[in-house]
Design goal:
The chain is of the alpha+beta class. It is built from 8 helices and 15 strands. The longest helix is centred in the first third of the chain and has 15 residues. The protein is globular. The two termini are 31 Å apart.
Length: 286
């Protein structure tokens, strides 16, 4: 497998990372995962903008331009002979002295790797499980997609390794937050509900795209602070992330949801129609 490493395409076994990289020493790093469909990195603009916001929060000087990353992505697709892929772009702070640093990080470590993922792969429905472990609060003013993943790892241990279960976090105040690796939606009486970003959740790129689709389709959306009891009354529920796209929940804490997934199916169809259209491609050419 070939990887993108600080501007070069190299074999994975050639890559070395310094033990003094502050991404390793202190978790100073952010990442993005996204899908490539027919060589098109879907919603790349949005992922890139969130990445820049994260780098700014971590005081990592943004040395990586979007065009350079896209060029690297296409070279990586060629090197690995892949058309449709899962991609992870990871930027850590880079090498520094031991100790907490106040100066900007000017030489980050940039890694990008991929694996083939058929564009038409489908993920089975999942059972939603309300976690005993509560969602930790963001370390800054908003949640980053950062290297600080212990809360998610502990949640995954709680539900085990079964792929058909998604753990659902509550906040410390007991309102719904998000899944371990997903954002959360449910439908009641034709209205889509989703936890608000101010509950401390990650503002997922697919989450944002779903909200845009709902607006285009004139579907009413309510964002807010909701109890788990409210979600258990849902007519249907689904979770989202950039890799699995839109996945139905067939039950929530043992309560089996109705089999009608009408609204989720509508959104999924619209999503698939837009992921490789000219409209979608224009998003990363702005």
């Amino acid at each position: 497998m070939y990887m993108y490493w600080n501007g070069e395409i190299v074999s994975a076994d050639e890559i070395t990372i310094s033990p003094f990289d502050h991404g390793y020493l202190y978790g100073m790093g952010v990442f993005e995962t996204f899908r490539v469909y027919e060589r098109h990195p879907f919603l790349f603009d949005d992922h890139y903008e969130r990445l820049k916001q994260g780098l700014q929060q971590l005081n990592i000087t943004n040395q990586v331009e979007k065009d350079a990353l896209l060029q690297g992505l296409y070279h990586l697709l060629d090197a690995n002979q892949i058309e449709d892929a899962y991609v992870r772009l990871n930027i850590s702070a880079g090498v520094g002295d031991v100790g907490l640093r106040t100066e900007p990080y000017e030489h980050p470590t940039v890694l990008m790797y991929m694996r083939p993922l058929p564009k038409d792969v489908t993920y089975p429905e999942k059972d939603g499980h309300i976690l005993r472990l509560r969602r930790n609060t963001p370390e800054g003013s908003f949640r980053l997609k950062s290297h600080h993943y212990l809360n998610n790892m502990m949640a995954k241990r709680e539900i085990g390794s079964k792929p058909n279960i998604e753990g659902i976090f509550l906040t410390e105040t007991g309102v719904l937050a998000e899944g371990i690796v997903s954002n959360l939606f449910w439908v009641q009486d034709g209205i889509v509900y989703t936890p608000s970003v101010d509950t401390g959740i990650l503002n997922g790129i697919t989450r944002q795209f779903i909200l845009e689709m709902c607006q285009k389709l004139s579907i009413i959306v309510k964002e807010g602070h909701f109890s788990k009891q409210e979600m258990k009354l849902a007519d249907e529920a689904f979770i989202t992330n950039s890799i699995q796209e839109i996945v139905s929940l067939k039950s929530i804490d043992g309560r089996v949801l109705p089999e009608d997934k009408r609204l989720k199916s509508m959104l999924q169809t619209y999503y698939h129609q837009n992921r490789t259209t000219l409209w979608a491609k224009q998003q990363f050419q702005k």
